[in-house]
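Email to the structure team, subject: Putative Zn-dependent protease model.

Hi all, the expression group asked for a predicted structure before they design truncation constructs. Nothing fancy, just the tokens so they can compare against earlier work. One-line instruction: predict Putative Zn-dependent protease, return tokens.
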Amino acid sequence: MSKKRIDKLKMAGALCLSLMLLAGCKSLMTGSEEPTISGVAPAGLSPNDSVERAIGAKEHPKIVKAYGGAYENRKLEQMVSKLVGRLVGSSSEPSRPYRVTILNSPTVNAFALPGGYLYVTRGLIALANDKAELAAVLAHEMAHVTSRHAIARAAARQNSELVSKVMDKMVSERTKGATIKARHLVTLASFSQVQELEADKIGIETAYLSGLDPFAASRFLQTMGDYAAYLTGRSEQGNKANFLSSHPATPERIKAAVFAARRYGGPEIGTRERDAYLDAIDGILFGDAPDEGFVRGNSYIHPALRIRFSPPEGYRLENTSKAVLAVAPDGSAMRFDGVNVSPDVPLTNYLTSGWVSGLITGSIREQVINGHPAILAAAEAKGWTFRIALIRVKSATYRFVFATTKPNATFESAIAETVNSFQTLTHDQAAAFKPLQITIVTAGYGDTVQKMAARMAGANDGETLFRILNDIKTGEHLKRGQKLKLVTPMR
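Reply from the structure team: attached below.
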């Protein structure tokens, strides 16, 4: 959560909607997903390259802003640029220009816009282990561009919206109308799945023609799945098909990617160029950007704002540019952000100004939390139970919102523990918290996974994260001279 964002937050908000959305958020992507595209050609028409470039150019600033800006790292930019050039030369359109942007986001994501606009997050780059794995992602996104998937998908969305509107107006029988719209939704989702698998296949071929390991795509898909499970704290096992998903289930994609790679030979075909890749990413920022604050274990710390709080163990914290989110194992949710309230306005006045749906006025009570004036209250709306806490620190106002559909003693205890943990930091305490980076080290004689993992910073389970970041399976041992990624405080 950025300090700039806190200063600009508006007072009004839809409380029920924001909490419902909170419970369903997922930031890690295991495929590509184009953002909403405006100005597309009408359904059924194929726009020319100039139209595609115009679409990409219009959307580009929005994408960069939404992902925290571009990540500036000259060494990394040169490596990615050369790798894209290498892939373009082996693609079906070697004369097509591309614009690649590294986004300053810790999420693992990559996507493409029409006109050759490619995006990859620093979070994805940090997770990949060699040039072949990054090439698999970039070639996949290039395939979306050359196959005009973004345009086709936007046209399909337009058609889908039209069908829904027609059904709402023309079909009087509710059951029949719902059935027709459901069938159309299945068709649209299936269309997206076909695109993803097609892009995988084309990307693997492009990587192979560039001299890189075609099996890198399946390997990195597995790594992304493992990392997703690590972040969410649950195992992603099983091979359940998810037909309505815009991306095929990860196990399905892995199998298809392995099958596509086998067309070109065995596992040793192509190069990985791991050492050169690790040299390029040495020092890359890992996790939250400094101006967004940090998640450390089960605590959120913002050194610039000099604040800290800790939900109970078991809550999974996620730091976004708009707010800090947390979800408990039972589905209870928490949102923390800053709001723009004049110091002259009493907290009670802000609380009752209309932004809380279903506010129970009799529940409002004043309190002092670690020396700071605060207001606590309850609300109920649309089956949700809410607890709100406002805390004032000098001229700043911070807001906690908790939500559940099943209020109980555990929920109330978690609220009290979280709110009472809120505290301000001294300058020295704040300065002790540093952003994290990827540091490349070399294994020496006697080094083990456990010894290396003990050097990891900012991780709940250092050994698991170390294994995922370095693609080291259970039972595998380190080799003397092997280059490895560690998460360490920034130098």
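Confidence is low (pLDDT under 50) at residues 5-47, 156-164, 179-191, 234-247. The chain has 16 helices and 17 strands. Ping us if the truncation boundaries need rechecking.
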